[in-house]
Known about the structure:
Elements: H1 7-18, H2 32-39, H3 42-52, H4 82-89, E1 97-101, E2 107-109, H5 111-116, E3 120-127, E4 133-140, H6 143-150, E5 158-167, E6 170-177, H7 178-181, E7 186-189, E8 191-192, E9 195-196, E10 206-209, E11 221-227, H8 240-245
Parallel strand pairs: 1-11
Antiparallel strand pairs: 1-2, 3-4, 4-8, 5-6, 5-11, 7-10, 8-9
Amino acid sequence: MxxxxxxxxxxxxxxxxxxxxxxxxxxxxxHPEARKILFMGEEMQRGLQRALxxxxxxxxxxxxxxxxxxxxxxxTRNPGTPAYTEMLVNNFADYRLRVGGLVDRPLxxxxxxxxxxxxxxxxxxxxxxxxxxxIAKWQGPxxxxxxxxxxxxxTARYIVFTCADLYRGTPYYESIDLIDAFHPQxxxxxxxNDQILDVAHGAPVxxxxxxxxxxxxxxxxxxxxAVASLAGIGKGKGGYWEDNVDYDWYAGI
Length: 253
């Protein structure tokens, strides 16, 4: 009998073995050995997954009956900045999602425009780096749709998401490569469980990149930029947690 150990199964096993959960994906894993096991061999893990799986291979999707009764919020619960609060008070009427960087046709999209785009609905499992998981339904346009509309250039290699919440006074950010950006289950979700996304879960728009762990699913997205390199963005490691607490940039599951 062969056994395949994935990060998804490791996370699930850690949750059972630990017997207790922490409070959100924004906390650092407390046990140093757990961190060492979970985050070891980033390049090897990415290389193996890219080599052994179809770039469009889908993660499991579930039925409505399998949805979790509660989906915890991870990371920031409310950006709380004056700019975000003003948008929230106006029900995001002034919100604009900017799509730029290495594109031929930069975009500035309102929330109604995003909601009018062809949407994908998917019921998937969110796996937090701390060990908790939950199944929920997400709805929104594919990220690929926006990138194609903007005319992403051949020189682009990564997609960077800049968010409304601030960490240490600077906007939170995350990034993924083009393989995950164009994956059919990578969407910009504006609805959770058939309800308009609320503040705690990332309103007005959050990323769902289903083949990666929860901390890659950026919330409160304000801008999307196609770039050739991650150098010079933050500390150059591709995301806030990657820059500051040594989380892997590639969190494939």
